[in-house]
Design brief:
The chain is an alpha/beta fold. Helices cover 53% and strands 13% of the residues. Strands 3-2-1-4-6-5 form a six-stranded mixed beta sheet, with helices on both faces.
């Protein structure tokens, strides 16, 4: 519950309000993705304050994943808190989480972001603010390293991804807890945040603390800074690759000589973007290298069939197509 007295401007409150202010749009309505935890609660309170000062509207969207007993009560409490903070409208959206083989965490995330899309459509809001912190960014980078998933994962989360805004990526998780304490807000503690069955929980509770203990307290910050640097490099390479594709892509084909003329980092991106354009499939590194071999290790091999895409080298060009029914 929010304290009846106006909170004094402590360093935590000032830092989080400043971070929110930097990403607020100039007009219209924004929504805060509110779970009731310290991160999203601090974000909601800061957004309510800064939106009022900026003369724009701020609401909240609460997603009930229906994964725990009493989840509807938790969602209702979060909605009540949002209204007390002055947020309006306040939407509570229930979702069904179906694990499609990607794991429970990824399945819940997919359902949650689908709910955000629904909220944006229903309200006409210009964005949804999420409470991901610097610590979340460090965990994301570390998980990406463990998977060996390359720069796509190591670049971490962006402050802006379409209509999704993450103003707290430069804020430590401890600051959001301090914000709540300073503002007299009582955050909800999600038991799933302590369940070691989830890889992110193990990283949060065991791996990162061990690294900070053994290597120094700056590991989390270093990981977040690494993701920022990788994002800058990756964005530049992506734009170069898209420029090559726009210039040389026609009839779902591109000349092998064009691909051969570019370094591997550009070539493999062009291949990924071409496949994405044809069938909406995103190739992993091994699959992209297999397609690139039709350029770099060409010895007359036949068509390459990958999940959702078929690539053949013919007449000096790589031709991309969607496989027909078997």
């Amino acid at each position: 519950m929010e304290s009846s007295r106006r909170p004094r401007l402590t360093p935590a409150i000032a830092d989080i309000r400043r971070a929110v202010r930097a990403l607020l749009p100039a007009q219209g309505l924004v929504l805060v993705g509110l779970s009731g935890g310290a991160d999203s609660l601090a974000l909601a309170a800061a957004t309510a304050f800064e939106a009022g000062r900026a003369g724009i509207r701020a609401g909240a969207v609460i997603v009930d994943h229906n994964l725990q007993p009493g989840s509807a009560d938790v969602a209702a409490r979060a909605a009540h808190t949002a209204r007390q903070l002055g947020l309006d409208p306040v939407l509570v959206l229930g979702v069904s989480v179906v694990d499609d083989g990607t794991g429970p965490e990824a399945a819940a995330r997919t359902s949650r972001y689908a709910a955000f899309d629904v909220a944006l459509t229903q309200t006409g809001a210009s964005g949804v603010l999420l409470g991901h912190t610097l610590d979340d960014q460090a965990e994301t980078v570390l998980l990406g390293l463990a998977r060996g998933s390359g720069p796509t994962s190591l670049r971490g989360m962006a402050a802006r991804t379409g209509l999704i805004l993450r103003p707290l990526l430069g804020i430590r998780r401890a600051a959001t807890r301090q914000f709540c304490a300073d503002a007299g807000l009582e955050p909800w503690s999600d038991p799933q945040n302590f369940d070691p069955r989830y890889s992110r929980v193990r990283v949060r509770q065991t791996v990162l603390p061990m690294l900070e203990s053994e290597l120094g307290p700056g590991v989390g910050l270093a990981l977040a800074r690494t993701s920022e640097a990788l994002r800058e490099d990756s964005d530049a390479l992506d734009e170069l690759a898209r420029t090559v594709l726009r210039a040389h892509w026609a009839d779902r084909r591109i000349a092998a000589a064009v691909l051969a003329a570019h370094p591997a980092a550009i070539r493999q991106r062009v291949i990924r973007f071409a496949v994405e354009e044809v069938c909406g499939v995103w190739l992993d590194r091994g699959q992209a290298l297999a397609v690139a071999a039709l350029v770099t290790n060409w010895h007359g091999q036949g068509a390459l069939s990958l999940p959702g895409i078929r690539v053949i080298r013919q007449g000096g060009s790589l031709i991309f197509s969607v496989p027909g029914p078997t």
